[in-house]
Amino acid sequence: MILLEFNELSPRLLDRFIGEGHLPAFRAFRDASVVFTTDAGEDPPRLEPWIQWPTVHSGLPYAEHEVFALGDGRRRLKQPLLGDVLSAAGIPVGIFSSMNLSYSHHPGDGGYIVPDPWDIEGQAYPGSLQPFYETVSAMVQESSRDGVPGPAQLAKFGLFLLRNGMRPATVKAAIKQLVHEKRTSGGKWRRASVLDALSYDVFRHLNKRYDVRFATFFSNSTAHYQHYFWRDMEPELFAKQGDGEHADAILHGYQSMDALLGRIMADNSLLVLATALSQEAWIDAEKRTFRPRDFAALSTFAGVVGGVAKPMMAEQFQVELPDEAAAIDAEGKLNQLELDGQQLLKLDRHERTLQVGCRSSVGQKGARVTNARTGTAAAFDDLFYAIHTTRSGRHHRDGVLWFRTGEHRVVDGRVELTDIAPTILEHFGVAQPAYMKGRPLPLRVTRKVP
Questions:
Q1: Is the dihedral of CA 428, 429, 435, 436 positive or negative?
Q2: Residues of CATH 3.40.720.10 domain(s) within the chain?
Q3: Do 418 and 405 meet the contact criterion of CB atoms below 8 Å apart?
Q4: For residues 61 and 51, what is the distance between their CA atoms, to the nearest angstrom?
Q5: Cα–chain-centroid distance for residue 207?
Q6: Rounded to 5°, angle at Cα 375 from 374 and 379
Q7: Half-sphere exposure at residue 14, Cβ-oriented, CA atoms within 13 angstroms
Q8: Which candidate, 276, 121, 138, 251, places its Cα nearest to that of 195?
Q9: pLDDT per position as a tens digit, 183-224
Q10: Which fold does the domain 2-283+393-427 belong to in CATH?
Q11: Helix 249-267 and helix 221-233, axial crossing angle in degrees, nearest 10
Q12: Could you check whether the bond before residue 45 is cis, i.e. omega within 30 degrees of 0?
């Protein structure tokens, strides 16, 4: 069984694009599935994929797992997760990039783990997978700068791919993408879809090498397109319209995932598609996200001494301080930075680690950041740069959950994310731990005999 974690796909857009004939693989998958709609169970600020995916894997609602920020999964998820329970029952498991979890290794050294690319402390298992994980992580975390790893790291990455299942068709697609970028000086956003295809090559190879019986595959590419390009796809919904340059970006994402899904369906019969949550048009507000241009410059302005910063997702970055006392001091000083009289940064501290993000939205041109502690000021644009463009897609509680059983049936209403793990455990005949709060979903209709 493979749990396809296609992050934040929209049920409405899936229906629309299937109806328009753009997604033949999704249509075939749906028509052979028991179709549920999930309820993410939370509203903002707890409606985030790094909260909902821990719910899927732990079988616990947010109120119990309390995973709120990126990195919290490692610290707060203490109970065995879905993959751990299966592995302990002797079922080899592969975890490929599932978001914000605490998987480390499996009993008996079976299976494999590739951490999610936003996990800045991630350790792949076995260790031979670490070069792949580190390179993908660097690409994803620095996507806002269009950066790529250095030649030495790329050489190791290429060698790994050659030894671990990369297909000639994927090589051709990657070369085509790079040539397109060079000829047009644009289109870098499509790299995310190419990375999906490359990742599936490796995923497929690892599943065969480790003879896994359950595996997860996480993709965020289309979620990213929806966040930033919804305004171009449906400009009629927005008071302030985009330039139309990315009008087909979201459809491109869905079609790329459809092609990938077609490959997966040809390779496997036992499939589950889940999105955990979805997105909708963000028409009643505008939001831009910003990162520091140089953390050393921001630290100097705030008066923070020491600290090593690493990018995470969107505006978020993590800062490691020498000790907890230094982290408390840095937290206090960074909290003194203000923009238009409001606190500039949002901070979450755990021991000597700070997770930091810029609270600012749009319209910062010419704005000044003030250090309330020292009375000094600096231009916002000198300290921060905008990531991508204005966000126009936001999270929605509805999610897709399709179990490919061979029978098509649409179940009315909403089901809980906590039901997913118990349903998968029941399929494998593994007892559900008492701490998991959900219940197995009815995948077969029991008909009474007259």
A1: positive
A2: 2-283+393-427
A3: no
A4: 9
A5: 21
A6: 110
A7: 29
A8: 138
A9: 777 778 888 899 999 999 999 999 999 999 999 999 999 999
A10: Alkaline Phosphatase, subunit A (3.40.720)
A11: 150
A12: yes
